[in-house]
Specification:
- The protein is an alpha/beta fold and 285 residues long.
- It starts with a strand and ends in a 5-residue tail after the last helix.
- Helix 2 packs parallel to helix 3 and helix 9 crosses helix 10.
- The chain is built from 10 helices and 8 strands.
- The chain has one domain: Metal-dependent hydrolases (TIM Barrel, Alpha-Beta Barrel).
- The protein has an 8-stranded parallel sheet.
- One of its GO terms (molecular function) is hydrolase activity, acting on ester bonds.
- This is DNAase.
- Keywords: Hydrolase, Metal-binding.
């Protein structure tokens, strides 16, 4: 039995055949799926799926790339949603600096960044960066506080923000656990998380031939410290790379992890399912 611990089944990519996709997952041995909230709307949609399908659970959260559009009361609304019995974590939440205003693809921004000079408007871009980082940080900390209040763990999104994410999370270590979803880092980074009591989850990236650092990491991480996920509709594993991903592909991810660790897929299924059950407090099967 496998668990897809991070999916976006409410996305319109699945509107035409959602029930079929869930059935294919079951046939592939993926017996439980966690649908992840990224906005108030998608959090409600994840809960609706959890109400409809017994094998689906939900998280509720605000993705850092969505906080600009979120109302100031968003976390209060999340608190109400999080009391649903099938909510198993807060998130995904965190920090994402990949698309800051100063990293705009406009010729001016690119030239300013490359040359390191101060052009008219550069200060404004840097102020916009600071404003966005601050808003992300506020919503991230509010969601961590909510997780503490409700005794739930958190699903972390981190992109180009490693140091700030750990600085924000550190005061909460020992009081809640986090999983860094879509982990594609190094063994040293994984060790840093494990030392703080946190976990990682692996996507289809682990099947990519050029993910050498991740392959080395997977060979070393201890059992019980990692889960499997698809992040569907994104990051389809080989041989489906570039196509729409779906929960059934958790099996291809498990097969690659098993090969890297010289284990059977049955062992990987058992170990990752147990770890996910404990982290998300799912009923055992």
């Amino acid at each position: 039995m496998l668990i897809d611990t991070h999916s976006h089944l409410d996305f319109p990519d699945f509107d035409a055949d959602r029930a079929d996709i869930i059935q294919r997952a079951t046939e592939a041995g993926v017996t439980r799926i966690i649908s992840i909230g990224t906005t108030l709307q998608t959090s409600r949609a994840a809960l609706a799926l959890a109400d409809t399908f017994p094998q689906i659970y939900a998280t509720v959260g605000l993705h850092p790339s969505e906080v600009q559009e979120a109302p100031e009361s968003a976390v209060d609304e999340l608190a109400q949603l999080a009391r649903h019995p099938k909510v198993v974590a807060i998130g995904e939440c965190g920090l994402d600096y990949h698309r800051l205003p100063s990293r705009s693809s406009t010729p001016f921004a690119a030239a300013s960044s490359t040359m390191g000079e101060v052009f008219p408007g550069r200060e404004e871009l840097e102020l916009a960066d600071a404003d966005l980082k601050n808003r992300q940080s506020i919503f991230f900390q509010q969601q961590l506080d909510l997780a503490l209040e409700l005794k739930l763990n958190v699903v972390i999104h981190q992109r180009d923000s490693w140091a700030d994410t750990l600085v924000t999370l550190k005061p909460y270590s020992g009081r809640l656990q986090a999983v860094f979803h879509c982990f594609s880092g190094t063994w040293a980074q994984a060790q840093e998380l494990f030392s703080m009591g946190h976990s990682i989850s692996l996507t289809g990236i682990v099947t990519f031939k050029n993910a050498r650092d991740l392959h080395s990491c997977v060979q070393q991480i201890p059992a019980g410290s990692f889960f499997l996920e698809t992040d569907c509709p994104y990051l389809a594993p080989e041989p489906h790379r570039g196509k729409r991903c779906e929960p059934a592909y958790t099996r291809q991810i498990a097969e690659k992890v098993a090969a890297l660790r010289n284990q059977s897929i049955e062992e990987i299924s058992r170990e990752t399912s147990l770890a996910a059950e404990q982290f998300f407090r799912l009923p055992p099967r």
